[in-house]
Amino acid sequence: MVTVGTIVWLSSELMFFAGLFAAYFTIRNISPNLWSQETAKLDVPFAAVNTTILVLSSVACQFGVFAAERGKPGRSGKLSQIKLWGMREWFVLTYLMGAIFIAGQATEYANLVTEHVTISSSPYGSMFYLATGFHGLHVVGGLIAFLLVIGRTFAARKFTHEQAISAIVVSYYWHFVDVVWVGLFATIYLIK
Length: 192
Fold this sequence. Notes:
Blueprint: H1 2-30, H2 32-39, H3 44-69, H4 87-114, H5 123-155, H6 161-190
Protein name: cytochrome-c oxidase
EC number: 7.1.1.9
Subcellular location: Cell membrane
């Protein structure tokens, strides 16, 4: 039931982001000169590296799910033995990569503010910050979920099927957040 509920909830989130994409393209169509002027201020290589980090975090997350499905909450060897990692280690790596992504977004926001691109400076600024900001909030929500799942494994005496399901559900959310970002990255940074 939790898995089905998560998928239904993510479908509603998909509609929310579809609305942001529609608004972005509508305003872009109305003000093409503004868009070409403002998109020139974006640091595409930096954003591409940040995007790569987020996408690779999905890979780490999935390895954590595989470990959870095997009933392995923690590593069975040294930290340097990646093949022996459990769900916790993979989820901590995912968490760190997600935190780096958020730090990268904050850095980009600071750079754009110095370029006078703010949420109130123009329709472009409004749409850029709304779309990327709401996505960033979703990433932060995912980071909190990872901490909760990891914490539960330390608090419980035994790793249960329910904890494995929790890890899987959090991975659904994380993969969704990553796919949405790939769409946002393509729309905002690549389509000029």
